[in-house]
Design brief:
The chain is built from 53 helices and 26 strands. It is an alpha/beta fold. β14 and β15 form a beta hairpin. The longest helix is centred in the first third of the chain and has 95 residues.
């Protein structure tokens, strides 16, 4: 365990060195490993024991089953005898039941006949009854009407009727008809006159009662006839007519009519009623007969039922006996089949028991390895994991005196999980590559909370699919976060906290450390005591690609590196491309993969189920038929699935073979993704998401050229994907990084295609030159010749150095050619491969390597890759969306807003319309930006957020707002952002989410004089040129101003020789100067040259400038480009480029195209060497970055690590051994009782050197103890170790040292030289004959001492003193003593010019000689009045090539040329190169 801990600690150092990833081990990590080991060991021991017990029980049951078959056969004979007896009883009962059934059948037939008769009679009765009721229903209305008519009669109206003396005939007819109907015994009265009627009515009450009680069902026939013939046929016999004469008569009339109607209907119904009565009598008699028959039938039925019940019991007994016989037969058959079919399982189970017994012996070692794996490897990448397990841990376990036994070929995944579980994970969306499976295994078994490093969001996608709605997803800082955590703790939820930063709220520390209270039932979150449910599980997640989590947090969590692997991404992209090209194939593959995973899960379940049922069966399990059948079904199902699995594997192999033809496309795309993903190593602002890459990948597939031939189609696909990635990525890169990206992409493609050798590429990038050799030829510098000698030691370049010496003329012609990369190499070297030619070119002409790389890319990938594509903001806008903002990466002097405003005006999004919101972020603008985003989201506006890097704390809020806008925003809504890249990776503040989800665009000023000059002129138009009344003056000065702008902008690329510091000159400076020019020319009769130059050089452009020498350079340009000679056609803006005369706008552009010389430093007033130096630095930087981006070969990493550690130790010992002792400043002070200025300088220098020596010695001694393990390595010690590994000077030393650009080796050599110089001087404190000025910590102090010494000696005032410099013609060795006044100086170099010893003045530098050594300088001091007249050029002195802050002083040097030439050339003296 201790070794695992220390080995991880060691590997973590190299992990940081190679990958820049921080992985820590702490004592808590070690304790967690021990805890996990104990837990895992206990679980595995129990699992193995339980599994072994199940297997042993299963085998025992199978063996028992074989012996139980004989007993079952005896039982079967007994059961068959009983079955025979039961069969005889049943047959006797069958005979009795047969006889009884016949009798019942006869009686049933009789009953059926009677039932039919009764049914017929019932039908007849029902029919007659229905007819009678229908007819009676017809008479009912008449009877009701008659009753209603009687209701209208009463004593009053009848009396009124009787009172009529002589009523109308109609009334008398009514009374007559009543008299007829009421005639006693049917005797119709003859006298039916009114008089007779009045008498008939007699007493009204009796009359009315007679009407009510009238026998309406028995009207005499003769009465009925008389009424019909004499009254009813009369039309006037109508109640309605009679009512007009008498209400009572009308009632009587209605009564007569309805009584007659009722009687007529009644007469029709009466026969039917009589027939119905007769039928009912017949029905009653038939029913009584039927009842008697049914009673008899029921008695017979009861008897039959008793017999049947007895029969059923007999049959049931027979069936039971038969079932027992069948079951026993079946059991015997099942037992035989089961024993036979499970024979193979029995063998396999026996082998498994043997395996488990062996595993029990190795379990301690296996679990030890597994616990270490789970505890430590989660954050490492695949290669490092393999190295830890295979190259460190396993060999260590085997190498002990008493070896710890482990299983041969142990796979830690199989120790923790099985194929079925992995298949389930894959179905849930986990990528199927090994790395992802290991991560999932660790995540599900780690005791510490897992923290997923998941920049591509693959891990969180799996988590969401795995847990579904049960997963509670939270974010730090969200509203109600602590309440949500408290609820999750109480209910035992699985909780995921996503998108963590590098720091976590301290309030969660108790939760991360599981610091429970009250016997583990509660945990404190803030000021709350929260209930801690035992099922609670916390998962942490971050999108950061390379977070730096502190050791305390890493000790509390298990870091898991879910970063996509190249193999995993290739598999995903293969599925994508096949789904587009061959959707049928991919669909089949997807279904088959899912099916195979399901089969694995089902097969595992079935096998476990089979073993569990068999091993846990009690007693004779063959008696449990259900169990036996279940076992058989389980076995047969498992066998079927195994066949399907084998069949699926065959089909999968065929499908994979068909899919694999598209694998080169997926491999190319995966390779390109990792190339662009590594760009963040150049600048952290270059961040690209996998989601965006997938979108680009699919778009490239759709846009690729179609072809029938598969190979041709594959070629088109790869080219389309490669070029799309190149275009999309290039627009996000600065110009200086585009060639780096292009070269890396090309090299990786060629390496993958095995078109170049990895070792040759490694040599080209590292270009290790260990020894320095003086050059034997004049056309190669010492560094170049040393490089030639270094590569000549390689087999492929054997003899190169001899050929260069032997054929010097050919090689000189090639080396000194303007573009050697385009020329043929001398001799047989022209036959070398393009990569080998690059190696030779880097040695001989490193300044041309960048051009050669472009040619290399053009030759291998095609010309369109080296043609800079023009940015199309409109196209980028089309690719954007509310969820995909546009992110402008700013450069000094470029305004991204202008292009967005132009596009907005074109599409109708302007500030005037209220649809364009421009917020320049800074203090207090965050709320304004949030309101603008909210409004834009709802109404579909545009928002541009400028300088987002200035609001670091608000960027998290912005990221969330953009996520919300992407989900809910209006489809026309767009967000544009801009930010400057941070100077260093440590200062980078923009969240990865903002960068990855954006379309990134770099805005840079144009490069090169041609582009810069055109761009400057594009700020104006023909109207501008014609606006001023002084036409010629305005145009000429404006053109010179444009050239001046192009110079100051383009000069930046030459580094410190161009400008001491970088300035953000921009087109706004130019346009404002043009306005000033117009105003001054209009207001003045003559051109005010001095005023214009002052305004331009000191105010407008000079307002950016902070360095005095840069300000002088700016003035120098203006003095050269703006003077009266331009109106006479005599002004040369550059060699071969005279200032144009009066032209129009188009004419100026045409003049530039035709007359401007090719790009060279001369266009800027610089020597050609300036480009050589700039290009050399550029190429070296490019190769250094490319080397950092190369994938590390970790297969030999252990040897590399060992050599690296040894290298540090060797360097440490070597430095300590060579490091001189400190100077005895006390003794020196005693020597110099009368301290001269020079002695004081020496004493101060020695004190500074002592401080540096003490720091070097002390820090190295502490590091030595740390490497031995006697001290804990502090961050400062780790930084020092990394610096020593990288041949860099540690920062702690630099803080006490002097400015230097050297690497550690050269720096230490320089340090020793300084110590020797100081030692020589400090012996007697006498001024050396020739002083090595670069050797001072503070050169200004020595130069001040020169002035002090002269002032003291000659009694001159110090404040009036100055230095004068004479350049001698001698070298250091020519001087034996110092001068009487002043000092001789040596060790200086001239950059941008050289000193012509013969002429005694400045001269143009020799080509390829970047820094010419100066002869000895004689420096004297004198008052200003006594000094010689000022020489031609005041030359600045700097300590290093970085210039700027390393300024020392100014030396006046003689020159035959104007000083302006050297100012523009950037000529300066350097103390070190």
């Amino acid at each position: 365990m201790a070794f695992a801990h220390t080995s991880v600690n060691e590997l973590s150092g190299r992990y940081y060195q190679n990958e820049r990833r921080y992985n820590y081990t702490t004592p808590k990590s070690f304790l967690e490993q021990i805890s996990l080991y104990k837990t895992l060991l206990k679980k595995k021991q129990q699992a193995v024991a339980q599994r072994k017990e199940h297997l042993a029980n299963g085998i025992q049951k199978l063996e028992t089953a074989a012996t139980q078959v004989a007993a079952l056969k005896g039982k079967l004979a007994s059961q068959e005898g009983e079955l025979q007896l039961r069969s005889q009883d049943a047959e006797a009962l069958i005979a009795k039941i047969g006889l009884q059934t016949d009798r019942v059948s006869q009686e049933r037939a009789t009953a059926d006949g009677e039932e039919q008769k009764v049914a017929a009679i019932q039908a007849e009765v029902f029919q007659k009854q229905r007819e009678c009721e229908a007819d009676l229903a017809k008479a009912e209305p008449a009877l009701v009407a008659a009753a209603d008519a009687l209701d209208t009669l009463n004593r009053v109206n009848l009396s009124e009727l009787k009172a009529f003396p002589n009523p109308p005939l109609a009334v008398t007819n009514v009374t007559a008809a009543v008299m007829v109907l009421l005639a006693p015994r049917g005797r119709v009265p003859k006298d039916r006159s009114w008089k007779a009627a009045k008498i008939f009515m007699g007493k009204v009450d009796d009359f009315l009662q007679a009407l009510i009680n009238y026998d309406k069902e028995h009207i005499p026939e003769n009465c009925l006839r008389v009424v019909h013939e004499q009254y009813l046929k009369n039309p006037e016999f109508s109640p309605n007519l009679i009512r007009t004469k008498s209400f009572a008569a009308a009632g009587l009339c209605a009564w007569v009519i309805n009584i007659v109607k009722f009687y007529e209907v009644y007469c029709d119904v009466e026969p039917k009623r009589q027939a119905l009565a007769q039928a009912n009598m017949e029905l009653e008699a038939a029913t009584e007969k039927l009842q008697a028959i049914r009673k008899k039938l029921a008695d017979l039925g009861d008897n039959l039922n008793r017999l049947t019940t007895s029969f059923e019991k007999a049959i049931a007994e027979k069936v039971r006996c038969q079932d027992q016989v069948n079951q026993t037969n079946k059991t015997i058959g099942l037992a035989n089949r089961l024993v036979r079919e499970l024979e193979s399982e029995k063998v396999r189970w026996g082998q498994a028991i043997t395996s488990f017994e062996a595993q029990e012996k190795t379990l301690c070692g296996d679990v030890l390895l597994t616990a270490a794996f789970v505890s430590y490897v989660g954050y490492f990448t695949k290669q490092y994991r393999e190295e830890l397990v295979q190259c460190k841990w396993i060999p260590f376990l085997k190498s002990q005196k008493v070896p710890i036994p482990i299983t041969a070929g142990l796979d830690v995944i199989t120790m923790l999980t099985d194929d079925a579980t992995v298949a389930a994970w894959n179905n849930e969306g986990l990528p199927s590559d090994r790395m992802s499976t290991e991560n999932a295994t660790i995540l599900t078994h780690a005791e510490r909370w897992p923290l997923m490093i998941d920049p591509q969001q693959q891990g969180i996608k799996w988590m969401k699919n795995k847990y579904g709605a049960d997963l509670k997803i939270l974010r730090l800082g969200q509203k109600g976060f602590l309440n949500a955590i408290e609820n999750a703790l109480a209910f035992g939820d699985v909780t995921l906290i996503e998108n963590l930063d590098e720091t976590i709220d301290p309030v969660l520390d108790p939760l991360l450390g599981r610091n429970t209270i009250k016997r583990g039932k509660f945990i404190r979150i803030g000021d709350r005591e929260c209930e801690f449910h035992p099922n609670f599980r916390l998962i942490l997640h971050t999108k950061l690609a390379n977070p730096h989590y502190k050791p305390e947090l890493q000790a509390q969590t298990t870091l898991l590196n879910f970063t996509v692997t190249e193999d995993g991404l290739e598999a995903q992209l293969l599925a994508d491309v096949v789904s587009v090209e061959r959707p049928d194939l991919e669909k089949l593959k997807s279904v088959l993969t899912k099916q195979q995973n399901d089969f694995k899960i089902e097969l595992k379940h079935l096998e476990d189920d089979l073993l569990l049922h068999l091993s846990t069966a009690e007693g004779s399990f063959l008696d449990d038929t259900e169990l036996v059948e279940k076992l058989e079904i389980t076995k047969s199902t498992a066998a079927e699935i195994e066949l399907k699995v084998d069949e699926g594997k065959e089909n999968e192999a065929k499908i994979n073979e068909a899919r694999d033809c598209y694998r080169p496309v997926a491999a190319r795309a995966a390779l390109l993704y990792f190339v662009i993903n590594d760009l963040r190593k150049i600048n952290p602002i270059y961040q690209f998401s996998l989601k965006a890459f997938n979108t680009l990948f699919h778009k490239a597939i759709r846009q690729s050229e179609k072809a029938e031939d598969t190979q041709e189609r594959l070629s088109h696909l790869m080219e389309s994907i490669t070029y799309s990635v190149f275009l999309n990525t290039s627009q996000a890169l600065f110009e200086k990084d585009k060639l780096t990206f292009l070269s890396q992409m090309t090299f990786q493609i060629l390496l993958r295609n095995k078109e170049i050798e990895g070792l040759e590429l490694d040599f080209l990038l590292r270009f290790t030159v260990e020894h320095t050799y003086p050059s034997p030829v004049d056309f190669l510098t010492t560094p170049s010749w040393s490089a030639i000698k270094a590569i000549a030691r390689r087999e492929e370049f054997r003899g190169l150095d001899r050929d260069v010496e032997g054929s010097a003329k050919q090689w000189k012609r090639w080396v000194e050619s303007e573009s050697p990369e385009k020329e043929k190499f001398p001799q047989e070297w022209k036959n070398k491969s393009p990569l080998q030619k690059l190696i030779i070119l880097r040695a001989a002409r490193p300044d041309r390597v960048t051009y050669a790389l472009r040619n290399f890319v053009e030759e291998r990938l095609g010309p369109r890759y080296v043609e800079g594509p023009r940015l199309d903001l409109g196209k980028s806008y089309e690719e954007s969306s509310p969820a995909t903002p546009v992110f402008f990466i700013l450069s000094p002097g470029v305004d991204a807003l202008k292009d967005v405003e132009v596009l907005g005006r074109k599409l109708g999004f302007t500030m005037d319309s209220g649809k364009f919101h421009n917020i320049s972020l800074g203090q207090g603008q965050e709320a304004v930006a949030e309101m603008a985003l909210e409004k834009a989201s709802k109404e579909g506006h545009w928002v541009i957020l400028q300088n987002v890097h200035l609001v670091t704390k608000w960027l998290g809020t912005l990221e969330k707002a953009l996520e919300r806008l992407g989900r809910e925003g209006h489809q026309d809504c767009r967000v544009f952002m801009s930010a400057e890249p941070a100077p260093t990776a440590e200062e980078h503040v923009i969240p990865p989410g903002l960068l990855e989800n954006s379309i990134k665009i770099t805005n840079e000023p144009p490069t090169g004089m041609l582009a810069n000059l055109h761009a400057a002129l594009y700020n104006f138009d023909q109207d501008t040129l014609e606006s001023c009344s002084k036409d010629q003056e305005f145009k000429s000065i404006l053109f010179s101003l444009c050239y001046f702008h192009a110079c100051v902008a383009g000069r930046r690329k030459f580094g410190a020789q161009g400008w001491n510091r970088s300035y953000p000159f921009n087109p706004g400076d130019l346009t404002i100067c043009a306005d000033i020019l117009y105003n001054y020319l209009e207001a003045s009769a003559k051109v005010p040259w001095e005023d214009l130059r002052y305004l331009f050089g000191e105010i407008m452009y000079g307002g950016h400038i902070t360095d005095d020498w840069d300000r002088k350079l700016c003035r120098g340009y203006l003095e050269e480009f703006m003077n009266p000679s331009m109106f006479e056609g005599e002004l040369l803006l550059a060699p071969g480029f005279p200032a144009p005369l009066n032209l129009d706008y188009v004419g100026y552009h045409q003049y530039i195209e035709e007359m401007l010389p090719p790009e060279s430093p001369a266009l800027y007033g610089l020597h050609p060497n300036a480009e050589i130096g700039f290009l050399t630095v550029t190429s070296n930087t490019l190769f250094r970055i490319l080397l950092e981006m190369q994938p590390r070969n970790l297969l030999i990493s252990e040897d590399m690590a060992q050599s690296t550690e040894e290298k540090v130790k060797t360097m440490l010992d070597d430095i300590l051994e060579k490091l001189p002792e400190e100077f005895d400043t006390a003794e020196m002070a005693h020597k110099a009782a009368m301290r001269s200025p020079y002695a004081l300088v020496c004493l101060q220098e020695c004190e500074r050197m002592n401080a540096l020596l003490r720091e070097i010695r002390g820090s190295l001694q502490r590091l030595d103890l740390g490497l031995k393990g006697e001290l804990t390595l502090s961050p400062d010690m780790e930084a020092q170790q990394m610096a020593l590994k990288g041949d860099a000077v540690p920062d702690a030393w630099l803080r006490l040292a002097y400015p230097s650009t050297y690497g550690l080796g050269q720096w230490f050599s320089d340090l020793l030289t300084r110590c020797r110089e100081l030692d020589t001087w400090s012996q007697d404190l006498a001024l050396p004959a020739v002083v090595w000025l670069p050797g001072f910590f503070n050169p200004q102090s020595f130069l001040t001492a020169v002035m002090q010494s002269a002032a003291r000696k000659n009694q001159w005032p110090l404040d009036s003193m100055g230095l004068s410099v004479d350049v001698t013609k001698k070298s250091k060795e020519d001087f034996g003593h110092p001068p009487r006044e002043g000092a001789y100086l040596h060790g200086l170099f001239m950059e941008g010019a050289r000193w012509d010893v013969q002429a005694g003045s400045l001269a143009d530098a020799r080509l390829m000689e970047l820094a010419a050594p100066m002869p000895v300088l004689f420096v004297r001091a004198a008052p200003a009045a006594r000094r010689d007249p000022q020489p031609a050029y005041e030359c600045p002195v700097y300590r290093t090539r970085a210039r700027g802050p390393t300024y020392v002083c100014t030396f006046g040097l003689r020159s035959r040329d104007k000083a302006a030439k050297w100012v523009l050339a950037g000529a300066a003296l350097l103390l070190s190169v």
